[in-house]
Amino acid sequence: MxxxxxxxxxxxxxxxxxxxxxxxxxxxHQTAASxxxxxxxxxxxxxxxxxxxxxxxxxxxxxxGNEVILAELAQGDFFGEMALIDGRQRSAYATVCGEARLSxxxxxxxxxxxxxxxxxxxxxxxxxxxxxxxxxxxxxxxxSRNANDEEAAxxxxxxxxxxxxxxxGGSWKxxxxxxxxxxxxxxxxxxxxARGIDPAPYDILSxxxxxxxxxxxxxxxxxxxxxxxxxxxxxxxxxxxNLKNELSLAEVLRRLDVLESERLPKWFEEIKRT
Length: 274
Hints:
By secondary structure, this protein is of the alpha+beta class. The protein folds into two domains: 3-140, Jelly Rolls; 147-261. Helices cover 59% and strands 17% of the residues. α6 (147-154) crosses α9 (203-273) and α7 packs across α9 (203-273). It starts with a helix and ends with a helix.
């Protein structure tokens, strides 16, 4: 188990090398065969698991008793980390899929580690507080924004000029104007003037068209690159919206859980008394 793998757990992300090594020494290792049930829904939360190899399936049971798979975790994943702090009952089943090697950090060992190193505990609390603060800022901010407005606010004068030229170069106006100019140039140099400025085969006209095409191509590429940036911006805004919705739903479910487990029983008792 590397220190980087241990720090992938958000709770341990702020640990320095010394504290991470001390915590790693507290890990116990277990090899589990396929089908081994690590814990059941409702069991006491006595520790956290890190997967060194193999896979673990996290599932729940619906009202009919059928298994509903929530996730399949593989090497480098972890689960049960919140049990280190609150020690509450497990909310799902954890079953080994194929032979797996697991590193286990028991809650007793973790609490003993915290008691010996209170400064590290403060660092963990600061890291969790920082994550909660960023989450609160995301929830309070407006995530749904217009990608076109965001892109327009970031565009420079050169970007807007490139878009304008590319828009004109890909329109019927440009095709009609180019055809008219070429036809007029050929008529002017072939019929109106006895000896035109650019007689057939119209070398000046060919050179001009080649220069226009050479300049127009990179300008169109610039506009296409900006379109790609706009697509990435739109994808980033969509991700922020989805993340905010996920966090909001998690907060709603948490409050419903508190309402169900703490407040409803009190209300029922008060109703019975009355």
